[in-house]
Amino acid sequence: xxxxxFRLLSRGGATFDKSKTESLLFTKQKETLPKQQEATKALDGxxxxxxxxxxxxxxxxxxxxxxxxxxxSEKRRKVKSEDEQEEDPVAxxxxxEVVHRVSAKGSxxxxxxxxxxxxxxxxxxxxxxxxxxxxxxxxxxxxxxxCIPILLQGRDLAAISPTGTGKTLAYLLPIxxxxxxxxxxSVGAGVRAVxxxxxxxxxxxxxxxxxxxxxxxxxxxxxxxxATANAISxxxxxxxVDVIISTPLRLVAALQEGIxxxxxxxxxxxxxxxxxxxxxxxxxxxxxxxACSHSTLQKALFSATLPAGVEKMAxxxxxxxxxxxxxxxxxxxPLISQSLTYVADDPSKLPSLLSYLAQxxxxxxxxxxxxxxxxxxxxxxxxxxxxxxxxxxxAGLTKKEREDAVSRMRKGESWVMVxxxxxxxxMDFKGVREVxxxxxxxxxxxxxxxxGRTGRAGREGKAVTFFTDDxxxxxxxxxxxxxxxGSTVPDWIIKLPKPxxxxxxxxxxTKRPDIINPARYVGRRDSIKKRDMVLGSKRRKTKPxxxxxxxxxxxx
Length: 556
Ligand SMILES: Nc1ncnc2c1ncn2[C@@H]1O[C@H](COP(=O)(O)OP(=O)(O)OP(=O)(O)O)[C@@H](O)[C@H]1O
What we know:
The chain is of the alpha/beta class. It has 2 domains: 102-326, Rossmann fold (3-Layer(aba) Sandwich); 336-507, Rossmann fold (3-Layer(aba) Sandwich), CATH 3.40.50.300. It is built from 23 helices and 17 strands. The strands form 3 sheets. A 9-stranded mixed β-sheet has the order 1-4-11-5-10-9-6-8-7, sandwiched between helices. Strand 16 (434-437), helix 19 (444-451) and strand 17 (461-467) form a beta-alpha-beta unit. The longest helix is centred in the last third of the chain and has 24 residues, at 519-542. Bound molecules: adenosine-5'-triphosphate.
């Protein structure tokens, strides 16, 4: 079904408006979910300190109070060797369980900040402070508190911090603080900062963040696309560009066509670093890094996940880096309540999802499938089952369709968004309260990023993962993530054997049918066949002397 027609069908003319009584349907859910109710009650202005990841951001009180000794890390730093410092994790505790800690490793790690104001001494322009305030950023999150001073000192950095904890601002603020005069007003300036991300949607989102932070300054910040690449190739326009946000392929195409030079770039950020550094993008990244040939180039990598192998490769790219880890590596925030739901086999998933959506739920819900065709097919099924305001977004759609789908999501017009891995990383839709993994995630990182579309900026979230018999060998890997982040897992799953290395590599390669509900097509296929036979027979009757099809070209 064409996307537009499908959208219209799914819309039903209604939009989600929390002020309307229809939304009460969704808020009732909490009565049936005691655990969630407890957490929700807590969020109504009384969030328990140990769960308030952003409390630190709301006045610097929460985390300080929970730290065993606030100044201990600073004292320790003085007695450690000058070359190799490891900052004590600053941890907030929930009983014996550590829910939040920060470690910063490297030589001469700059001290972290407690407030944005303390950056004034580091030369952050007052305009940037004003823009921080108008964007609603009052106090730094942990990743910002640690990474901003490091980047302001020109150091290379690898930062790992859970989804939705504000990594974008952690690298944008130092870039804009250091950018100085716009390239258009200073001769020979040109592109000085490049941010590379894996998807067009994420590039778009980061571009918007840049515009907010750079408001009032005349910097030219370009969201790189075919059109903008053509535009900057005209009449020296490229020398007037200050910042570029791009996907690797698009940037490399421009470098190869000779319409872009990166030899003046001082800041290179690889966001979603583990995805950007995977073999699919690696050749392009090497080309980009080689093109950024300025002697004072600063490289920074950010992600919520960084598997050991990729981290080793990443650290080799950096020069005397600092490594910052917020929370437990590759672990979602405890704000996301996670569960695993057994659904036997693929055909059983649809009825399970429909019964889930027949209960009160918190829109918008994000549903992840493994392929574009399955995403389209599932969205169609939901529409045909009268689920209101269903939408679909995947990389197979046109640029316009993708942009429109993101915009509907931002406006709250989509209640149920069916998507693929394209939306798993970086996308920040503040209102997403529930994520459903309809198809099992492709690996642990995919799980962490997918469910990280909820529980952002200190909000509560819920993640449900369907698993079939085919997914069972990989269940333990996901269950370990649940356990690590404080969710409960049934005993029998904990007792499952650890999958072999070979088996782990097969995760994500499970073959699933393109069509979510083949039963719907059985009747349709039969009637198409019958119709074709009738038409064929009519054609033959109207052409006297024509041999029946079976005898044609047989020589008989
Ligand atoms: N200091 C702050 N105070 C309040 N809100 C903040 C602050 N910094 C960022 N945010 C908000 O937190 C949300 C998540 O930020 P961001 O998208 O940068 O997270 P992220 O860590 O990059 O997540 P992901 O790993 O999914 O890419 C955004 O809505 C952002 O506006």
